[in-house]
Design brief:
The chain has helices at 11-28, 34-41, 44-50, 89-101, 113-121, and strands spanning 2-5, 53-58, 64-71, 74-80, 105-109, 124-130, 141-146. The model has no long low-confidence stretch (mean pLDDT 94). The relative contact order is 0.15. It is built from 5 helices and 7 strands. By secondary structure, it is of the alpha+beta class. The protein is globular, with a radius of gyration of 14 Å.
Length: 147
């Protein structure tokens, strides 16, 4: 597995990352309906283009299997293809973010307990909870800080 920081964000790569995003969300965000996923999916390409630091994990064939976005010291997004979950890509990406960008905070859906547990395993603790997400939808968020 190789970690790559992206300077360019060509359309083909953005399509691959969108596929990873959807695969990951469908596997982990069971509280979202198909319609909600399709609605959110419309905004993902712009998020991928605008996040200051976009970093991908590639498999041995050079194909992206996961990605994360970082703004300042905050993890904005971390998604691993469903077929690659549990194989260490998320840990490698997040550790890269901690080591190279001093990532020390993030937000995670409360209804995604596997992600919460992963971040706790990586040294993050819940510091705040909200009843709604950042778009105002009724999905509680947990704000976590690295201790």
């Amino acid at each position: 597995m190789k970690i790559i920081e992206l300077r360019e964000r060509p359309p083909k790569l953005l399509r691959q990352l969108l596929e990873i995003w959807e695969s990951s969300v469908r596997a982990t965000h069971l509280f979202l309906s198909d319609g909600e996923i399709e609605n959110i999916k419309q905004y993902v390409p712009q998020a991928l283009k605008s996040v200051p630091n976009l970093i991908i994990a590639e498999n041995q064939n050079g194909r992206p299997i996961g990605f994360m976005g970082i703004a300042e010291q905050k993890l904005e997004m971390l998604f691993i293809a469903d077929s690659e979950r549990g194989k260490g890509a998320g840990k490698r990406l997040l550790q890269y973010g901690i080591d190279n960008y001093s990532v020390n905070e993030l937000a995670v859906n409360e209804q995604n307990p596997l992600a919460k547990g992963f971040y706790e395993h990586m040294g993050f603790k819940v510091s705040k909870r909200t009843d709604i997400d950042e778009q105002g939808a009724p999905y509680p968020l947990l704000y976590m800080k690295r201790v």
